[in-house]
Amino acid sequence: MNGTFRSVSLVWVVLSGCLFFSSRRTSVCAAPICTNGKAGCHVLSLANLFDRVIQHSARIHGISSDLHSEFEQYFLPSKNQIGRVGRICHTSTIITPNGKENAQRMARGELTEVILKLLVAWRDPLWHFHQSMAHHHDFNNFSSNKALEMNDMVHELRQGVEKVAEKMQVQGIISNSVSSLASPEDLLPSDSVEWQLMKDYVLLYCFRRDSNKVQNYLKILKCRIVPDHGC
Amino acid sequence: MMKNVMEVLFLLMLLFTVHAKEKSYNPPEKPALTRCRSPEKETFTCWWEPGSDGGLPTTYALYYRKENSETVYECPDYHTAGENSCFFNKNDTSIWVNYNISVVAANALGRAFSDPVDIDVVYIVKPNPPEKLKVAVMEDKGWPFLRVSWEPPHKADTRSGWITLIYELRVRLEEEDDWEMHLAGQQKMFNIFSLRSGGKYLVEVRCKPDHGFWSEWSSTSYINVPDYFPREKSMWILVAAFSAFIFLILTWLLHMNTHRLKHCILPPVPGPKIKGFDKQLLKNGKSDEFFSALVVPNFPEASPSKYEDMLVVEFFEVKEQELMLEESNDLLDGGLKYESSRSDSDSGRGSCDSHTLLLDKCREAKEERQTNRDGSLIEKQIRQKDRKEEAISPDISSGRVKTWPSLYSPLPQYGSNPLDKQSSLEMAKQHSLSISSFLTQPGTKDALGLSYMDFCLSNKQNHVHPQTQVQTRSNVNISNIGHKHAPAGLHSPTTQYVEVQRVNKEDMVLLQPVLSRCGLIEDCPHLPKGEDYSKVKGVDYDNRLLLQREGTGEDMCSGMDQETNGERGNCYTTSTVSIMQKPTACIYTVMPIQEGMALTLNGYVDTANMGNLPSC
């Protein structure tokens, strides 16, 4: 009896320890990036990082497209009416390249900065949008889940892009001035109340476009910086 | 003449003006923008569909506004993209900017504005088809496959990451119609396996940006796959080897099972199966021995397994009351039902069960029975024997049979009410099937004096159904038909004894009264009591006599004229009853009992005037 009791308790301890450590591992904080290629440490190349963030941004754009088409389908706002009112996105103050040449002409650091600005600018509006969706019950659960997912993913993408920027700075690709703009407060326009006035449909329209911009800019960056495959 | 010419001219002018007025001119109809497309996300083109021009030369103009700006611009290029189109070059194209475009049609009489269209160039990208499609046959461990490669359209800039394209290709054999689709993703090369040897393939490819439209299919590429499999020779060799192998196996199987097959295909001729048949004796030619061997010592069998034997030894005792009918069932539905025409199998049922017989009689009997319960041992014995369902070996020698088992428990009930002989007689007459025999009870004063005892042994169970129990009950309907009231003072059991002498060859049961020994009619002594006698309780409505063992009452037989047999008189009553195949064909002899004859008796079967002989 004593022997079995001991063995059982030992097993329990081991299990709980494993669970504890594994939970620690899957926390939001990612594993630290290895520096200087230490032995036994898996180093992510810049190309891999770029691939990951590009995939992420593609997924975000997909979700936003779905939500936008759903909104259009169910609520069918008159296009003319919106056209006349004008879709004023709150991010219109951020200057973004509107064509290929403009984007290619832009410096890498600048482009990275634009990406980060966009991602930061959408953090709060998306959160509020998710809240309003949950309360309205106009959408089904699937849509509200998408809104929440969008919110989380934008947050994660921003962190990923920051990591990429960090890595690029380490590798000397971009100047160090970019990282100094990481603080979100500096990036937000002063009259941040504008986005609160946006209706849901306009918000989705704007966000769909901005997510496309982010994805495109990341691809341009990647093909400029690591042009080996996929470009 | 001048006047005429003037008139003609005037008329002509009128005609012209009228004609001119019929052909009216209108302002132009509203044009419609059909589509806008961008091949590389750097330029785009819009096409429109003009309406009717109203008969006048009409011009079309395209105007657009950019997002959040009120400035209206006109289309920079109407010609590059063809008729009714507007081409926006790189300088005029802004991505991620909303364009509000409309077309105006104008002629001398007016203008028409089309519905405006909002577009964002990002979402209207339809690239050109991929270029430089190459297909080659390559080999992989002796098996060929196709390697397809292509280039993106030259206008789409995928190198800088501005556009991301995904590709799809399709393949088919020349002689077939269905394409085989393959999605290739972002790669520009694809391998196709599982080719048909010697086939000719067609390959096409197309592309699509990640958010946009599929391009058109590229030009077809043809490829011939060489014969990598010499099909004619090798296949036949394989087939031959395989079939030889199968053949060997089959012959081996056949060899193993020759005997069984022989037996199956050519079955042996069966020999004679006669008991005692000895081939050797026959061959030896000694007929005496041979035939003597055939003689079976115990033939014919005396065992009572055959039902005729059972018939032989049956006693009949007709008793007035009880005749326990265990199942008084539904027959007695409202009076007598003369339904001789109704087909009725009548198997396993007493006469009271039959729809065609004597229902009132049965009811009467039932009432009688209920009033006169007699729990005699003999009855019980009979009942027990009923249930046993086996034949008791008859005691032929004595001429009497111990109580015979009536093999079917539902015994008909019939009271023997002598009052209703008339009606019963009528009934019997009427009824073709009936073997209604009822015995007059002592004490009844029958005016008619005719009562019939006719019974017909049930012929249900005959040779045709050997396995069924022999229905050896003869039912004698004693009850009076039609009378439903219980006879008042007729409680004395009136039983008459009949015994089955034997069954002759024509399936006729020869009956004889039990009181044959009594000699005289009127002062017949009591029947010896005991087990030798069985009383007929009654006649079932399907012609079965129900026996019963009972103590005797006054057994007097009213000897009358004899019946057919011509034996010594008195109480002999022999009646021949034939067992036939069908109840309708039952022939029975009716023995009318004379008036005062059996009234005092307790149910003797009497030979009386054979008056009516109702036929079955």
From TrEMBL, chain A:
Keyword field: Disulfide bond, Hormone, Secreted, Signal
GO molecular function annotation: hormone activity
SUPFAM superfamilies xrefs: 4-helical cytokines (SSF47266)
Biological-process GO terms, alphabetical: positive regulation of receptor signaling pathway via JAK-STAT; response to nutrient levels
GO cellular component assignments: extracellular space
Keyword Membrane recorded: no
Gene3D superfamilies: 1.20.1250.10
Annotated signal peptide: 1-30
Family matches, as Pfam families: Hormone_1 (PF00103)
InterPro entries cross-referenced by the UniProt entry: 4_helix_cytokine-like_core, Somatotropin/Prolactin, Somatotropin_CS
PROSITE patterns: PROKAR_LIPOPROTEIN, SOMATOTROPIN_1, SOMATOTROPIN_2
Subcellular localization, as worded in the UniProt entry: Secreted
Family according to the record: Belongs to the somatotropin/prolactin family.
Protein name (record): Prolactin 2
Species: Eleginops maclovinus (Patagonian blennie)
Lineage: Eukaryota, Metazoa, Chordata, Craniata, Vertebrata
Automatic annotation (TrEMBL), chain B:
SUPFAM superfamilies: Fibronectin type III (SSF49265)
Keyword check for Lipid biosynthesis: no
Compartments (UniProt record): Membrane
GO CC entries: external side of plasma membrane; receptor complex
Range of residues in the leader sequence: 1-20
Membrane-topology descriptor: Single-pass type I membrane protein
Pfam families reported in the protein's UniProt record: EpoR_lig-bind (PF09067)
Every Fibronectin type-III domain range: 27-128, 129-228
Keyword Metal-binding attributed: yes
Transmembrane regions listed in the UniProt entry: 235-254
Segments of skewed composition (Basic and acidic residues): 366-391
Sorted UniProt keywords: Disulfide bond, Glycoprotein, Membrane, Metal-binding, Receptor, Repeat, Signal, Transmembrane, Transmembrane helix, Zinc
GO MF: cytokine binding; cytokine receptor activity; metal ion binding
Stretches the record annotates as Disordered: 366-396
Gene3D superfamilies: Immunoglobulins
Functional summary from the UniProt entry: This is a receptor for the anterior pituitary hormone prolactin.
This protein's domain notes: The box 1 motif is required for JAK interaction and/or activation.
Similarity annotation: Belongs to the type I cytokine receptor family. Type 1 subfamily.
Protein name as catalogued: Prolactin receptor
Gene name as annotated: PRLR
